[in-house]
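Q: Convert this sequence to structure tokens.
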Amino acid sequence: MTDASLQSVTTTGEAGMGDYFALLKPRVMSLVIFTAFVGLCVAPVHVHPFIGFVAILCIAVGAGASGALNMWWDSDIDGLMRRTAKRPIPAGKVTPEEALGLGIALSGFSVVLLWLATNALAAALLAFTIFFYIVVYSMWLKRSTPQNIVIGGAAGAFPPMIGWVVATGSVSIEAMLMFALIFMWTPPHFWALALFVKSDYGDAKVPMLTETHGRRVTRNHVLVYTIALIPVALGIAFTSIGGPVYLVISLVLNARFLNGAIALWRRDEDAAVADNYATEKRVFRISLSYLFLHFGALLIEAALRAFGYGGWGLW
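A:
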């Protein structure tokens, strides 16, 4: 963000605690907390509840720090988009300098505490996640390439891996598949959103795929990435954290998501405009429940294993 952009943001009133909390992107943080918690719970190594609580707290604070730093960097374009215009900085509640200071402080706190409470690898992954989201995605990819979501999605895919590493101290195929599930899910999820908030990205000059290659190409990409996502999601069923319950749930969710992606692919713009992008909005909602329910299914399998019924061996 340029100096001119920083100077253009002025506060209109004293900020409250709610404004500072909003800087942490609580909606995003909730998904981070949930997926990290699942990664911790499904790991084969037991973690003391207090250590687990501290670890999840650190991951949540790290996610919040990323949100604050992202809002600091993007404050110049946030004010141009209806979806983000009411965020604390463009709304004049918080200054960019305050967001920057909060983000840096929370980043350092979360990484150091996670290192002290768990292990160096988990702390290093958290530090890399924050770096990736701010430097690689926000500062570099977001404004320079329509592949911003494809590559930048890695930032949101690390939390379950961090949770796993907190428990085990190492990375395994299960951790990598949980990472891959979120990584492959991110592009069709955000492109479905971009299909019905297209003008926002255009106004802010963000090179979303809808802007650089058009809506027809975006619909094609949603279908292709959804198809590529399916084997990743189903593959988890046949690892140590999967099982028949997960497989059944995953089959239903993938059939539903694929059906929505095909419906998007078949759409023309006249039909989309006529019904106010109802199908696009429906597919976006499906994508939200898709990820939550997959990780919820992993929790069910973990609970069943705790009672001696999980996995494939006892069915």
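The chain has two domains: 1-170, 172-315.
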